[in-house]
Design goal:
Elements: H1 3-23, H2 34-71, H3 87-150, H4 153-180, H5 183-188, H6 190-201, E1 207-212, H7 221-242, E2 246-254, E3 257-264, H8 276-287, E4 291-296, E5 302-309, H9 310-313
Parallel strand pairs: 1-2
Antiparallel strand pairs: 2-3, 3-5, 4-5
Helix pairs in contact: 1-2, 3-4, 3-8, 6-7, 7-8
Length: 315
């Protein structure tokens, strides 16, 4: 029954009962007798209470829908408002749920295109850094070596310092290129890539341990890239913002899925809002049907968990 007919029917029943009582046993005298006033007041109270109950029941699904609309998050899909209530309310909730389905599908498709374009741009930049800037710095090193061989004794120390600075710049360019395009992931696979990533971040007072279990099910290239990028972003956040001296990277089979855990002993989240890096990790997880959670760790630090179902990540 629609909300209109519910309210109309209740009001009609109340008015019919009141009219029947007035035409029958209930009479109103002039002046009004106390007993008659009591009957009228009680009848009015019952009618108002019945109206309140019907309105509360009829509008409850709308209130629930309003709360769900206020807290909807496309980065955490799947939550839907139960379809209930009168016809108009049920149709509105169904329309809202359908709209969420469409928005989540469009966002996933848009995010996939954006991340694919991002990966292509990373590969292009990494290739240019390696081929153009790297070769230029290598040529500079060779030129400096020839200069050092012919330079006077008093200038050799300065030329040597220039060589070391150029060599350090070349190493940094190569490191950036490796981060932009993880060649070890393509050549040696995900476990070796995660171990290499942990070793790369074990500098400047941060020790990163890795625990990559064997016997994991094969994942698609997209899933492996998502796992690697989430681990990379998590360790980058740890190194830059967490103030931690220990971190850990785990990859293992948990239940019906593969789980990546990046844990540190830093200062934790502290109620800070999610940044662009965390939102990017959520979007990457959605692309491969995974679920990402960021929360406090056991040692006051932060835990980043990415779980990819085997059915979604299998080759």
């Amino acid at each position: 029954m629609s909300l209109f007919w519910r309210i109309f029917s209740l009001n009609a029943v109340g008015l019919v009962v009141a009219a029947a009582l007035l035409l029958g046993p209930v009479t109103v005298s002039t002046p009004v007798l106390p007993a008659e006033a009591l009957v009228v007041v009680v009848g009015l109270a019952l009618l108002l209470a019945a109206n309140a109950v019907v309105l509360r029941i009829g509008l409850a699904p709308l209130q629930r829908l309003g709360r769900d609309m206020a807290t909807a998050d496309l980065l955490r899909p799947g939550a839907r408002t139960p379809v209930a209530g009168p016809t108009e309310t049920a149709e509105l909730i169904t329309t809202y749920n359908t709209m969420l389905d469409r928005l989540e599908a469009e966002r996933a498709a848009g995010a996939a295109r954006a991340l694919s374009a991002q990966e292509r741009e990373r590969r292009r930049i990494a290739r240019e850094l390696h081929d153009e800037v790297g070769q230029t710095l290598t040529a500079v090193l060779l030129q400096l070596k020839r200069v050092a061989d012919r330079a006077p004794e008093e200038l050799r120390e300065e030329v040597g310092q220039a060589q070391e600075a150029t060599r350090a710049g070349l190493d940094e360019i190569r490191r950036i290129a490796r981060r932009l395009r993880p060649g070890v992931l393509e050549e040696l696979g995900l476990p070796s890539a995660l171990r290499s990533l942990a070793a790369e971040f074990s500098t400047h007072g941060l020790t990163v341990r890795h625990d990559v279990r064997g016997g994991l099910p094969p994942l698609t290239e997209e899933s492996e890239l998502v796992v690697y990028r989430v681990a990379q972003e998590g360790l980058t956040n740890t190194a830059r913002h967490a103030g931690a001296d220990r971190a850990e990277v785990r990859l293992r089979l948990v239940g019906d899925g593969v789980e990546l855990l990046v844990r540190d002993n830093g200062k934790g989240l502290g109620g800070a809002p999610e940044g662009a890096g965390t939102q990017g990790m959520h979007e990457r997880a959605l692309l491969v049907g995974g679920v990402l959670s960021v929360g406090p760790g056991p040692d006051r630090g932060t835990d980043i968990r990415l779980r990819i179902p085997v059915s979604a990540g299998a080759r």
